[in-house]
UniProtKB/TrEMBL annotation:
It is an enzyme of class 3 (hydrolase). The gene is kynU. It comes from Streptomyces endocoffeicus. This is Kynureninase. It catalyses: L-kynurenine + H2O = anthranilate + L-alanine + H(+); 3-hydroxy-L-kynurenine + H2O = 3-hydroxyanthranilate + L-alanine + H(+). Catalyzes the cleavage of L-kynurenine (L-Kyn) and L-3-hydroxykynurenine (L-3OHKyn) into anthranilic acid (AA) and 3-hydroxyanthranilic acid (3-OHAA), respectively.
Length: 399
């Protein structure tokens, strides 16, 4: 499979793992590995731009990096035409702003819909906004081993619904929600949708424009390999931009940046979603990651991701099921994102053993071990070796 893999040469674009004890890195769905190109871009920024041009760098390109990289990302991975994606803050702050902006477009409605197994940050922010604005949260009871279906969303909708916010790829199971069907249902009810694409972007193609999505947010440090804490992104459909209001206005989103006006007036378009000064060093890593993805092609990345996860399931069935593991991700390729989760009553203990022995996975309470498969940096042989080691270590621990 490695010999036939058209993306295999991209593994050389990554900085080699320095820890000799690591057997395989299967946690790229939490933090991607660093790129050689990232080192070059950051070095060029520091030694050529920052040290040479200094403050002049803002006028010579830095100010517009959030939009420029946003357009590249929109085209490479999100199915978004230019002018609708911008790099901004952390995912949490981007989600906070997107939810507020969506709510501002649906005044008089009093409910936010989300699911009980959405990522914790998403649930916490929804509850906080609902409390502050006097709204109600309508909870969809989601299955941690599956995800939210369109029918569940339909059942939760009413004329009180203002916004529905869901993860496109579930962080536990990797279940892929039906974006088009959910968007259609929500819009038929007169509400808005805010998508979390953290486990989607760079792994699963999405078509935000074609599916009539309203808002989306996501991080860049997973499958885009932009580095820990790299800036997140916000997508706002162009038709919503003229009338939206976001809750954290700042001078970077002002219509006239240097007017220092006594009253705030938002910049036109997607730039209105900015707040403070862009993190230029962080954006350098995003640029490197987006360029790599654009070169590889999101459809080829998705094809390899599907093959990797399919192999992980086959090996799990053969080697781990006899040890008491159960699959907690969809078997259907079309419903499964870029990671595979297996469950075991002693998963937390086994995860520590695996990590200490060089198989870098992650644990998700209460009983899940996630096998993250970043297609541009992961080989089929590496996956096979890691699961073979998992089989041996788990057999010893459970004996």
């Amino acid at each position: 499979m490695d010999r036939q893999d058209p993306l295999a040469p991209f593994q050389d674009r990554f900085v080699p793992i320095k820890d000799p004890n690591v057997v395989a890195y299967l946690d790229g769905n939490s933090l991607g590995r660093p790129l050689h190109r990232t080192l070059e871009v950051v070095q060029e920024l520091v030694t050529s731009q920052w040290s040479s041009r200094m403050i002049r760098g803002w006028q010579e390109g830095w100010l517009h990096l959030p939009e420029r990289i946003g357009d590249l990302l929109g085209g490479a991975a999100l199915g978004a035409e230019p002018g609708q994606v911008i790099l901004a803050d952390s995912t949490s702050v981007c989600l906070y702003k997107a939810l507020h902006a969506a709510l501002s477009l649906r005044p008089g409605r009093c409910e936010i819909v989300t699911d009980t197994d959405n990522f914790p940050t998403d649930r916490y922010i929804v509850e906080s906004i609902a409390r502050d604005k006097g709204l109600m949260v309508r909870w969809i009871e989601s299955d941690p081993a599956a995800g939210v279906t369109a029918q569940q969303v339909i059942d939760a909708l009413s004329d009180r619904t203002a916004v529905v916010t869901l993860s496109h790829v579930a962080y536990r199971s990797a279940y892929i929600a039906d974006m088009r069907a959910i968007n259609e249902a929500v819009h038929a009810a007169g509400a808005m949708v805010v998508w979390d694409l953290c486990h989607t972007v760079g792994s699963v193609p999405v078509h935000l424009d074609a599916t009539d999505s309203d808002f989306a947010v996501g991080c860049t440090y997973k499958f885009l390999n932009a580095g820990p804490g790299a800036p997140a992104f916000i997508y706002v459909r162009s038709e919503h931009q003229p009338t939206l209001a976001q809750p954290i206005p700042g001078w970077m989103s002002a219509a006239d940046l240097y007017a220092m006006a006594p009253e705030y007036r938002a910049a036109p378009g997607i730039r209105a979603m900015l707040s403070g000064t862009p993190a230029i060093t962080g954006l350098a890593g995003v640029m490197a990651g987006v360029e790599l993805l654009s070169e590889a092609g999101i459809e080829q990345v998705r094809a390899k991701s599907t093959d990797l996860t399919r192999l992980a399931i086959a090996l799990s069935d053969a080697w781990l099921t006899p040890l008491g593991f159960t699959l907690a991700s969809p078997r259907d390729d079309a419903l499964r994102g870029g990671h595979v989760t297996v469950s075991h009553p002693r998963a937390e203990e086994l995860a520590r053993i695996l990590i200490d022995s060089g198989v870098i996975i992650d644990f998700r309470a209460p009983d899940g071990i996630r096998i993250g498969l970043s297609p541009l940096s992961t080989s089929f042989t590496g996956l096979w070796t890691a699961l073979d080691r998992t089989r041996i270590l788990a057999s010893e621990a459970l004996a």
